[in-house]
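Tip: read the tokens left to right.
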């Protein structure tokens, strides 16, 4: 539960009554057996959920804080009561900054990674002929936004194919480095691919970008929440994150980090009333990127309540458990007849996204059979072929993975050719 004095005692008591009576500790995340953390979530016990890369379930305590604060807001939406939200926003920026080893002046509170990515895309000053480096695994919030801007302004978009079977960070680095030209002004990468789970070596790419005065943006939608992050050490110029994915928080919460010394180079995309401003001087910080009009103020409390849960467990423990679960599931999927998992499988450059092709199979029908067994996955494509994406997280159990394997084996009898099994 949140230790913030901005939430009433009554709200805290109501949230505590709804939350599962669990002490949140690292041992709740054991990759073996059933993680106890699962019992603290609202998620229907009948559903085996493998889609954290899209939306992850949240905790009872978080939902309770948000519901109660929303009710309190609607009961008294006066300007006087709403004065608590700028203070809550200040506290939240400080808290996020501490987790990421940066300063609060470098954090903007936005609605999700897509909004943060768009700020970074639209805010840079560029001219015709400037090169922007992307990959073919960029999220549409960067790829489509850059495409629109390039068409209007004559920019040179250079798309680097992601080597999904890469065996080293050097291979990933080399692909980006080879695309750099004297006209390159920005590199926009998904920190972890939501398609293959490939994790780019951002710190090494940042050194290259810094040496050539190239802006480096990391779309952290797929790393914010499960990975222990040190953005100062990572060296990126900007980074985005969402609360509703791996952080296991509320919808429509997110953050944008912009390095302090480069903020003058990135302009905001919209200026409205500064609802969360406590000081006009803060318009000279990353707060200028969040002046986007009225939003769901109670979401601030829900975001903070999510961090309460994660702090009780520990970010290092969360990353370790997420990696262990993904590695064991990847191994199990590799043993399913006819299954072809993509991605390198090398721990240093692989995260908890596993996309699996089933050559010769009706992938849509196979995924539908999994859902009939209440196994939630995501449809995907890789190399032009239909595939199923599994994104396991710390709440998934050994039994969950076993159910997936059983479902795939039942839906994937060996193909036959001329009466022979193949």
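Filled-in amino acids:
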């Amino acid at each position: 539960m949140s230790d913030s004095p901005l939430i009433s005692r009554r709200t805290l008591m109501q949230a505590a009554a709804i939350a599962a009576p669990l002490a949140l500790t690292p041992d709740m995340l054991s990759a073996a057996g059933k993680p106890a953390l699962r019992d603290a979530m609202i998620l229907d016990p009948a559903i085996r959920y493998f889609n954290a890369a899209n939306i992850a379930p949240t905790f009872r305590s978080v939902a309770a804080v948000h519901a109660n604060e929303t009710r309190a807001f609607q009961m008294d939406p006066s300007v006087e009561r709403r004065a608590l939200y700028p203070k809550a926003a200040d506290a939240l920026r400080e808290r996020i900054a501490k987790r990421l080893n940066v300063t609060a002046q470098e954090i903007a509170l936005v609605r999700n990674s897509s909004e943060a990515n768009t700020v970074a895309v639209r805010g840079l000053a560029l001219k015709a002929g400037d090169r922007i480096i992307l990959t073919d695994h960029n999220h549409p919030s960067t790829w489509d936004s850059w495409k629109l801007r390039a068409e209007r302004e004559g920019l040179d978009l250079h798309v680097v194919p992601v080597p999904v079977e890469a065996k080293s960070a050097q291979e990933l680095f080399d692909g980006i480095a080879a695309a750099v030209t004297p006209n390159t002004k920005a590199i926009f990468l998904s920190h972890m691919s939501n398609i293959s789970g490939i994790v780019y070596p951002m710190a090494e790419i940042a050194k290259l970008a810094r040496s050539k005065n190239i802006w480096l943006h990391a779309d952290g939608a797929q790393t914010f929440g499960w990975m222990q992050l040190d953005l100062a050490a990572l060296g990126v110029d900007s980074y985005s994150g969402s609360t509703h994915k791996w952080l296991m928080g509320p919808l429509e919460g997110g953050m944008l980090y912009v390095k302090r010394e480069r903020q003058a180079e990135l302009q905001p995309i919209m200026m409205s009333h500064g609802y969360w401003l406590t000081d006009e001087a803060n318009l000279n910080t990353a707060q200028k990127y969040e002046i986007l009009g009225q939003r769901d103020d109670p979401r601030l409390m829900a975001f903070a309540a999510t961090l309460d849960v994660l702090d009780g467990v520990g970010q290092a423990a969360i990353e370790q458990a997420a990696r262990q679960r993904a590695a064991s599931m990847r191994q199990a999927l590799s043993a399913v007849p006819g299954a072809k998992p993509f991605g390198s499988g090398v721990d240093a450059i692989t995260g908890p996204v596993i996309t699996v092709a089933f050559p010769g199979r009706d992938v849509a029908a196979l995924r539908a059979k999994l859902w009939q067994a209440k196994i939630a996955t995501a449809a995907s494509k890789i190399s032009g072929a239909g595939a199923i994406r599994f994104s396991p997280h710390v709440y998934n159990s050994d039994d969950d993975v076993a159910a997936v394997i059983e479902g795939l084996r039942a839906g994937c009898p060996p193909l036959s050719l001329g009466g022979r099994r193949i």
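The domain at 316-411 is CATH 3.90.1150.10 (Aspartate Aminotransferase, domain 1). The first strand starts at residue 48 and ends at 49.
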